[in-house]
Design a protein that fits this description.
globular; TIM Barrel; 354 residues
C-alpha cells in the first residue's frame, strides 16, 4: 500500500513528506515551522454498544445524547462519513493533525455526571476492544476509513488506544497488553506512516483501573509499541497526561513526543507546563515535539502555546445537539459555530493556511 503522507520527527520539529510543517513560517516573530496544529476528533469512530439499554439513557439528558435530530436514530457510519467530509476544510485552514481513538472520550458530559459511575467506570461502552483485548472488526473498519481520509489530506493522525472510564471493559492486564499488541500490529499493517500512538489518554493516579495504564508503569506499553516493527517500520508513541499530572521522566525518556493536556489552564498555565517539560532531564537529553492534543476552545491558550513553541489541540466538548462541539454525539463536524470559527480562522492566520 502506498501512502501519500509520511510523518517524521526531527528534534522538536514535525515534518510531513520530508518538509517541516509550515516551512519557513513565522507569525509575529514566533517560529511556526515544525508545529502540528491539531483537532481532538476522538469520537470520529464512536459507537456505544450499551445504548439504549442502560438506565442512564432513560434520563432526559441521556435520552437525547446520541440520536440525530433528523432520523431520531444513532448511526456510527454516518458519524465517520461526516467526519471524513469535513477534513478538507480543516486542512485548508492549516490543521495538520487530528486525534482519533479506539475508546473515544466522554460522549455525554451531563448524563455521565448524573450516572452512578464516575471516572474509572464510565457506563458507555465505546471500545474498539473486546474483553480479552481482541480488536473488534467493525470498529477497526471505521478507524481504517478515518485514517485513510486523514492520510489523503496530508495530515498526521494521533491515535489514542485507551480512555479512562473505558479501560474497565478489558478484564485484566493481559487483555490490555493484547489490545496494545493487536492495535499496534493492525496500525502498522495499514501501511500508514503518518501515525503517533497515544497509548493512554490522560493518565494519572486515579483514572484508570489497570495499573499498567497508570503513571508508574505506562512507559512499559510505550516501550512495547516502539519495539514492535513491520518491515523495518515502527510507530511513534507516547501517552498523555491530565493537566494536574505533569509528564514524567519514565515516559519522556522513551517517547517520541510529549503530550500534555491543557484543560482548565489559561494561557499562562500552558506556558508553565511547556517550561516544566523543558526542565525534565529526559527532555533536555533528547528534545521532542511538545503537542497539546487536548486543551480547550480558547484562542488565548492557542497563542500562548505556539508562542512557547508547542503545538496545540482544539478540544470542544459540545452539547449532544448536532451543533456545538466535536465530542458529544451526534456531532456536526463542520466549522459552524463562533467557537469553532475563532479557532480555525486563527490557525489559518498563523499558518497562512499552509
Amino acid at each position: 500500500m502506498s501512502t501519500p503522507t509520511v510523518l517524521t520527527i526531527d528534534g522538536a520539529k514535525c515534518a510531513i513528506n520530508g518538509q517541516y510543517t509550515y516551512a519557513g513560517t513565522f507569525f509575529k516573530q514566533n517560529l511556526v515551522e515544525g508545529l502540528l496544529f491539531n483537532v481532538r476528533a476522538i469520537q470520529a469512530t464512536f459507537d456505544d454498544e450499551a445504548y439504549p439499554d442502560l438506565e442512564v439513557y432513560q434520563t432526559d439528558v441521556g435520552a437525547r445524547s446520541f440520536v440525530y435530530p433528523d432520523t431520531k436514530t444513532w448511526d456510527p457510519e454516518r458519524n465517520t462519513d461526516e467526519f471524513i467530509a469535513a477534513l478538507p476544510s480543516w486542512r485548508a485552514h492549516g490543521i495538520t493533525g487530528v486525534t482519533v481513538g479506539f475508546q473515544g472520550g466522554r460522549p455525554a458530559l451531563d448524563a455521565w455526571r448524573m450516572s452512578p459511575w464516575f471516572n474509572a467506570y464510565q457506563p458507555y461502552k465505546n471500545s474498539g476492544f473486546s474483553g480479552d483485548g481482541a480488536l473488534k472488526p467493525a470498529f477497526a473498519a471505521r478507524m481504517g476509513r478515518a485514517l485513510k481520509a486523514i492520510d489523503e489530506q496530508g495530515m498526521a493522525a494521533i491515535v489514542s488506544l485507551f480512555y479512562f472510564g473505558q479501560d474497565h471493559w478489558l478484564r485484566d492486564e493481559q487483555a490490555v497488553v493484547r489490545a496494545v499488541d493487536e492495535a499496534t500490529q493492525w496500525l502498522l499493517g495499514t501501511g500508514h506512516r503518518n501515525l503517533i500512538l497515544e497509548v493512554a489518554n490522560e493518565i494519572d493516579e486515579n483514572h484508570y483501573v489497570h495499573d499498567i495504564l497508570k503513571p508508574a508503569r505506562v512507559h512499559e506499553l510505550v516501550d512495547r509499541v516502539r519495539n514492535t516493527t513491520l518491515d523495518g517500520r515502527r510507530l511513534f508513541a507516547s501517552a498523555s497526561y491530565t493537566p494536574g499530572c505533569m509528564p514524567r521522566e519514565n515516559v519522556t525518556a522513551l517517547s517520541d513526543v510529549v503530550i500534555p493536556h491543557g484543560n482548565g489552564l489559561d494561557g499562562n498555565g500552558h506556558r508553565r507546563v511547556v517550561q516544566a517539560i523543558r526542565n525534565l532531564e529526559a527532555f533536555r537529553r533528547r528534545p521532542q515535539p511538545i503537542i497539546f492534543n487536548e486543551a480547550n476552545t480558547s484562542v488565548e491558550c492557542l497563542d500562548a502555546s505556539f508562542e512557547s513553541y508547542a503545538s496545540w489541540g482544539y478540544y470542544d466538548h459540545g452539547k449532544n445537539n448536532y451543533r456545538d462541539g466535536f465530542q458529544s454525539p451526534p456531532i456536526n463536524w463542520t466549522i459552524n459555530t463562533p467557537a469553532k470559527r475563532a479557532f480555525f480562522e486563527r490557525v489559518r492566520e498563523i499558518t497562512r493556511g499552509r
